[in-house]
Amino acid sequence: MKRTLTSAAVSAAILAGLPGAAAANIQCGAREQVVDRLASTYGESRRGFGLAGNQTLMEVFASDETGSWTIIVTRPDGTTCMIASGQNFEAVRDDLPAGGIKS
Predict the structure, then answer these.
(1) Would you say 83 and 64 are in contact if contact means Cβ atoms under 8 Å apart?
(2) Domain range list for the chain
(3) Contact by Cβ (8 Å): 83, 97
């Protein structure tokens, strides 16, 4: 079964996770250590990124071999937190419907 993570879900996870990381049991550390662990332990590499509020960098890591995926966020102070993870990652790119974005 395919699972889709919407931008609203990602935003909610970021907003819920960053201020109270300890309360939410979210693992945080130096970005280099977190990225190294994702690569060495899970074979994950970066698949996408975007800027969230407060100059926070959101990144998606995934493994083609195992299908595992992880979403991390990095704050301006360099602290990186793992927000969500799961299985069955599938990269997709959906085109906008005819007419594009309506304002």
Answers:
(1) no
(2) 26-86
(3) no
Locate 33 and state its tokens.
């250590």
Return averaged pLDDT per consecutive 10 residues of the chain, 103 residues in all. Answer: 40 44 70 96 96 93 96 96 95 82 70
From CA 63, how far away is CA 101, in angstroms rounded?
Answer: 31
- For residue 21, the model assigns a pLDDT of 41
Find tokens 């594009």 and name the residue.
Answer: 100
| Residue 71 buriedness (CB in 10 A; 0-12 / 13-18 / 19+) | buried
pLDDT at 103 (0 to 100):
64
| 80: CB partners within 8 A, 6+ apart | 28, 29, 30, 31, 34, 35, 72, 73, 74
Determine the straight-line distance between the first and last CA of the chain, rounded to whole angstroms. Answer: 33
